[in-house]
Amino acid sequence: MADKKKTRGLGRGLSALMADVTEGNTRQATDTSRRPDMVVPIERIVPNPDQPRRDFTPNQLEELANSIREKGVIQPLIVRKKGDSKFEIVAGERRWRASQMAQLHELPIVVREYDDTEVLEIAIIENIQRADLNPVEEGMGYRQLMDKFGHTQEKLSEALGKSRSHIANLMRLLNLPDDVLGYLKSGELSAGHARALITSDNASELAKKVIKGGLSVRQTEQMAKETGSLVEQKSKPRPKTHKDADTAALEGDLSANLGMKVSVDHTAGGETGKISISYQTLDELDELCRILSATR
Question: 262: domain range?
Answer without folding.
Answer: 246-294
